[in-house]
Specification:
This protein has about 80 residues and is mostly helical. Helix content is about 60%, strand content about 0%.
Length: about 80
């Protein structure tokens, strides 16, 4: 383990293992977010292929489906 100290009221400690764990956690969170966005994009694209009758079954009309398909966000209830 590498330790760095500084002349101040507290010690600063750098831990390569802790850094690696933090970096891995950030990469995993980023990949989870990429997968979530990709899935939502596929779902929205699917709306455009659905018949008007199928859209009506899920409570949408063609205009609402097209509007939803153009969105590029993650809905609050799907949070990342």
């Amino acid at each position: 383990m590498t330790h760095y100290t500084e002349n101040c009221s507290h010690n600063i400690t750098a831990s390569p293992a802790g850094f690696n764990e933090s970096l891995l956690q950030l990469v995993n969170q980023w990949m989870d977010n990429v997968r979530l966005k990709s899935g939502i994009r596929r779902e929205r694209a699917t709306l455009l292929t659905m018949s008007d009758a199928h859209l009506q079954d899920i409570g949408l009309d063609r205009m609402a489906a097209e509007h939803e398909a153009l969105r590029n966000d993650i809905p609050q209830n799907r949070g990342s």
